[in-house]
Design goal:
392 residues, alpha/beta, FAD/NAD(P)-binding domain, Alpha-Beta Plaits, 3 domains, 7-stranded mixed beta sheet, 11 helices, 30% helix, disordered C terminus
């Protein structure tokens, strides 16, 4: 058996790499092992966040990992266009993978094993360490195992945020200096739909076609055609498609509480449902969790503290699960954009910042649902809000 580690991460995605890097940066002094079944870390993703999503003390350790930044961004709806003066940042998965590998080469406490699938042999207890085995039959032990492979079960009452994106090189300047995080002026179908555009350079854009839908079907070729048509309507002439990404994220309309952790296997990332349940953003929620749990890493009751933090996050998302009923159920399909259109008409920038951070105050929440309703509630929405879909 390989020598014991402080932590072994099963899965080398966003949350695992951020946690290992950040904890070692902050002074954690025991070896950490990341095991990833693919041949590289972090997959094929683009992660973005509002600067106000991140806890202020955590900013300095995250900043070196950022690949692109803007001072503000735009949203567009049929009746309103607005510039939101909140700094917006992006990380590229291939860049994060390279930075973590480079860091591991300099820091002997960080070990990375790729191309190996890991299976848990022993889940451990207060008296014993957990053990995993890789597909090449090597066993590794640690004080704690952190599992961050894929999404945990939410509930049967689930909708979806799904998207296809292409990173393109244009033949000429797009004349776009800031991101458009929502362009809902596009034809509405399959639920609430919007385009998402990140301008990395004047001629290099990421264009994503995003749907808040009640089904998980994703017709990639058709959606890519839609993106090309959108670019053509903007007079953006695509020279090459340099990269493609896609995703289907289950979005909860109701959700079970995190189960108590009774062994030494801890969930993180999507496996712990650590994402904003309305926006789908996950980087900030995970990074804040990673930062807050750091002072307790050597506590023998870490699993209890870990569960307590997950439960606090679950409770903080309750209001946003209610909001999801308006995005997915209220109103006709071609009118569901109206909820966020009215939101951006009414809310102050400070309230928008707290919405993305998942920290809206009671006063904010009252303002979001006050005034004239954006559409007449459907019978399905009323049934849902009156308790037909109860949380447990």
């Amino acid at each position: 058996m390989q020598h014991p580690y402080g932590f072994i991460f099963i899965g080398g995605g966003l949350s695992s790499t951020l946690a290992a890097y950040t904890w070692l940066q902050l002074g954690y002094d025991k070896p950490i092992l990341i095991i990833e079944q693919n041949d590289h870390l972090c997959g094929n993703h683009t992660w973005s966040f509002n600067q106000t999503d991140i806890l202020i003390p955590a900013w300095n350790t995250l900043y070196p990992l950022i690949d692109a930044s803007w001072k503000e961004y735009q949203v567009k709806f049929p009746k309103i266009e607005r510039t939101v003066s909140i700094p917006y940042h992006t990380l590229f998965s291939n860049s994060l993978s390279a930075k973590i590998q480079f860091y591991a080469n300099k820091n002997p406490l960080l070990h990375i094993l790729t191309g190996q699938k890991a299976t848990i042999l022993q889940r451990g207890s207060i008296q014993s360490n957990p053990v995993i085995i890789t597909q090449d039959k090597k066993e590794y032990s640690a004080e704690w195992i952190i599992q961050s492979t894929g999404q945990n079960t939410i509930d049967s009452d689930t909708a979806y945020q799904k998207f296809v994106g292409i990173e393109v090189s244009l033949k000429s300047d797009a004349n776009l200096s800031n991101p458009i995080v929502m362009d809902a002026t596009v034809p509405q179908k399959d639920g609430f739909r919007f385009m998402y555009i990140l301008p990395f350079t004047p001629t290099n854009l990421l264009i994503e076609d995003t749907y808040y839908s009640l089904n998980s079907k994703l017709d990639v070729p058709t959606i890519i055609t839609e993106i090309k048509n959108y670019a053509q309507n903007k007079n953006w002439q695509i020279n090459t498609i340099d990269r493609q990404e896609k995703g289907v994220l289950p979005i909860p309309l109701s959700q079970k509480k995190p189960a108590p952790i009774t062994d030494k296997v801890l969930p993180l990332g999507m496996h712990a449902n650590l994402f904003h349940v309305t926006t789908g953003y996950s980087l900030a929620t995970n990074y804040n969790f990673i930062w807050q749990i750091y002072p307790h890493l050597k506590d023998k009751h870490l699993h209890i503290l870990w569960h307590k933090k997950l439960l606090e996050f679950y409770q903080s998302m309750r209001f946003y699960r209610v909001m999801n009923h308006f995005l997915f159920i209220a109103g006709k399909t071609n009118k569901r954009y109206r909820f966020l259109e009215v939101f951006y008409q009414r809310q102050k920038e400070s309230e928008i910042a707290r919405f993305y951070a998942g920290t809206n105050t009671l006063q904010d929440k009252i303002r979001i649902f006050s005034g004239k309703a954006p559409f007449k509630p459907s019978i399905y929405l009323l049934q849902s809000l009156l308790g037909r879909r109860k949380e447990t």
